[in-house]
Design goal:
With 96 residues, the chain is mainly α. Helices cover 80% and strands 0% of the residues. The N and C termini lie far apart (48 Å).
Length: 96
Amino acid sequence: MATELPGLLGPVVFAGLLVASGLTLLAGYRVIVGPTTPDRVVALDVIATNVVAIALLFALQTGEALFVDVSLVLAIIGFVSTVAVARYVTEGDIIE
């Protein structure tokens, strides 16, 4: 169900989608080229956060509440994976 966003909100949401998409591509470059493993981990966390933002902005633009649920699940998965990778990088294993 597509909804019409009032006033300036529609172009702002569209601009936010473009900015988040561009930043996701730049973070993808850092994941590929990143000189160290922590750089790559931070870039992956940025990508997860941007995907959550894109899902929420898309939910605002289209009026589909399903994307809010998708973004919540993605946020949880991103948090757990970031904690697991950070623990692996700092201590060498995830579960002691």
